[in-house]
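Lab notes, practical 5.
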Amino acid sequence: MSQQIINAANIALDAYSVIISIIIAGSIYLFKKVNKSAKWFAYTNIVAVIYGIADIIMWISEGTDAKWKLIALPLSSFVFFLFGIFIFFCYIMYIISYYRHTAEIGKSYVISCLVAVCLYIVFLVITLFTDCYYTISPQNTYSRGKYFILTVLIEIFLYCEALFLILKYHKNVMGFENIGFASFIFVPFICHIVQLANFGISLTSFGLSISFLIIFINLNQKMMLDIESTKIQYNENKLKSLELHKKTILYLTNLLENRDIETANHELRISNYVELLARQCVKRGVYSEKLTDDYIQKLKDAAPFHDIGKIYISDAILKKPAKVDDKEYLEIQKHAQDGATIVNEIISISYERDFTKMVSKMCKHHHEKWNGKGYPDHLREEEIPLCARLTAIADVYDALVTKRCYKNKVSYDQAFEIIRKEGGESFDPKLTEQFLEIKDQIIEITEKYNDNSIEGL
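Output from the prediction step:
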């Protein structure tokens, strides 16, 4: 094989290594959050880019046919050796920084690495005046120096330090991470040995690029696992927070509505009524295109908020043991708009936009009537949001079958008869029909979560 072919192959190998290192370093810095250990790996690849470019220049700058080559070869040779040792330093710092997440690592490892690097650089400076590491002939060609073995011995020492760190702390991380660390030791080392035996073939940079790819794949896998773990933890905390918030609102709305803990199951019953009615509608093909599982779950979660606007109604009106007058009734009507305002200004902080919109509509329009005689906007028929139409039936039914300070409860038969008569007047006739079909299940919910029950608390 001619020298020109060997040179071309070596340049191609170095160029490949440079491209790989650029991609890896760039990819790491594209991540939104990069920890300290990942930065050290990025530095390792940046150094490897300079190392690879210097090696390429060395291959193309031999000879005396151009003046620039007389400067380029000595300079690139120096840079090649200098950044070659910096690769080891950055990589060992990467290992130390990585393992420090799980263990206390003494400063002695960093100090010994620095001593080895400084010693290497001292001999490199001496090489400028002697033939220690390498020599440049009068014909401007590169060859190994008399004490080139010193570079190998120092690199072996650093290899051993990296290997010692991996062996000592490998149990602190997952197996695939240790494989990545070990690849830097064995792949470039084997390639280096092959290169020493076959001087014409440059494999060191190629070996580094292979190990860097393995490490980067493992690093990416680790980051994905960390992200997934963070997402799971975030979702768990979010669910706990939302559940706590929902429970708080559940009791708060009941206390605000009735000023009495004995009625704390009212909102829980409403939630179960609307869910049961919605699923019955899906079963019978009524509004089934809108009543998806997600919509029904939101509907159930939204129901406890429907009367939150009653926070602004005084005890004198809410607890009045008689029928309210016209002025007091107008005051009560304000709770629909007030509830929507509370939802939009406060509850929206903790809940997603679609859910907040549903709750707002439910609060504002659950007293609208099918015939347009409700409040506050006198909407009629399907102008009334579906969530509010469902809640309206559940709310009126529950008010009928439970005792309030201003009235006694009616029997189940009487309550369902009133609901039947109001179908097409106060309530959506389709929903009314489905509500009457599940009479027995509705009664079961009423009994299960009666005002004396602690099951919902």
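Observations recorded by the TA: The CA atoms of residues 239 and 245 lie 10 Å apart. The chain is about 70% helix and 0% strand.
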